[in-house]
Amino acid sequence: MVLIRDGHVGRIQDYLLHILHANSSNWPATVQAHALQLLRSGECSSFPALMERVMDDVRTDPQFAVPQAVVDEALRATRESLDMVCEIEE
Q: How far apart (Å, rounded) are the C-alpha atoms in residues 38 and 32?
C-alpha cells in the first residue's frame, strides 16, 4: 500500500514509459504497428483478442520482446522505490 499511497507506482510507470520511448528500438511504435496489422488483417476482431495476441507475441516472439536495457532500467527504478519504503536483503 505504501508504494501506491506515496506515488511510487505512478513514478515507476511514468519512468518505464519514458525509457520505452527513449530506447533506440522504438518498441512502443513497433508493438502498435503490429497491433494495427492484426486488426487490419482481421486476425483479431475484438480488443480482448487483440490484447491476448499481442501479449502472447511479446512473450514468445523475439521481434516484439522488450529491450533488455529497458528491463534493466525498469528494475533499477523499481528497486530505488522499494528501497525508500522497505529494507531489501541482497
A: 10
